Amino acid sequence: MKNLDLHRCGALLKHQLVSNSRSLIRLYGTIAVGLFAADCLITQIIAGPMVVETYSRRVEDSMDANFLVLMALVMSLAASIFSNLNHRQERTAFLLLPATNAEKYVVRWVYASVFGLLFTLAAVVVADTMRGLVGLLVGQPAFLSGLPNLFATSSDTVVDPTAGYALLLGVGLLLLTHATYVLGGVVFSRNQFLITSCIIILLNIALIGALSYVVLDSDIVLNLLGYSEATGLIVHPLCYVLIGVSYVVAALFYWLSYRLFCRIQVVNHKWTNL
């Protein structure tokens, strides 16, 4: 048997989606309703008609809030990558599926990360559409969608010479955060998102404290990226280090999560899977 067969991966992914279809509909339906209610509160559409500029600004604010919720949900789904192993019966059924550990890991990663992101985006679209329609019904001046603001970038960012490095660093840190939640989802058998979030917060506090100590007690100026017409593009060596470390550590965390998954036992009453 091949260690990773695309046909078996596709069949297993289809099995995961079909067997969890009802819970997925309930979960993302609830998310859509919750986002719709939050959008209505932020935009205050039921308070009465308002001028287009005010309404547009409130729609942008609601979409900013939706983006934060989207990121939180994506990380929560990453931490719950193996939530189907929380109970002995589910754990036994999943581990006995006719597929290799690599295939099971890849399928659960795609299920929780890729499809989780797509389903969450669909919930955001549904919530935004319902908010726009309700706005028309209560007399708002126009149907305004906040979706363009979700991925909008300013024209300055596009031509900014530092944008490429900033994008590499941002994607690297995002992957590192996602990999950390995936690793936490495998290490801990209960409350994965909460425990992993607490660990990340504590590590960030310690890192910020250490950097603040270095900066405040020395003449070091941590300016990672800069640009001026006189000097051109300035990239601090630490920026290259952070970019490289973020991708390497993210890959390491994904590999560790896979190795730990291969060691998961059917019977486990501990808080961790170690």
Essential attributes:
two-stranded antiparallel sheet, 3% strand, 274 residues, 71% helix, mainly alpha
Q: Could you please describe the fold and organization of this structure?
A:
Helices cover 71% and strands 3% of the residues. With 274 residues, it is mostly helical. Strand 1 and strand 2 form a beta hairpin.
Q: Ranges with pLDDT <50 over ≥5 residues? A: 153-159
What value does the average pLDDT take? 79
Query: Residue share in helices?
Result: over 70%
Strand content: under 5%
For the biggest sheet, the summary is: 2 strands, antiparallel
Rg over C-alpha atoms, rounded to the nearest angstrom: 22 Å
Structural class: mainly alpha
| Overall strand count | 2
Terminal-residue CA separation: 27 Å
Write the layout of secondary structure elements.
Layout (H helix, E strand, L loop, with lengths): L5 H14 L1 H23 L8 H28 L8 H8 L5 H37 L9 H4 L4 H5 L3 H25 L4 H25 L8 E4 L3 E4 L1 H25 L13
Antiparallel strand pairs: 1-2
Helix pairs in contact: 1-5, 2-3, 2-5, 3-5, 3-8, 8-9, 8-10
In short:
The protein is built from ten helices and two strands, in the order H-H-H-H-H-H-H-H-H-E-E-H.
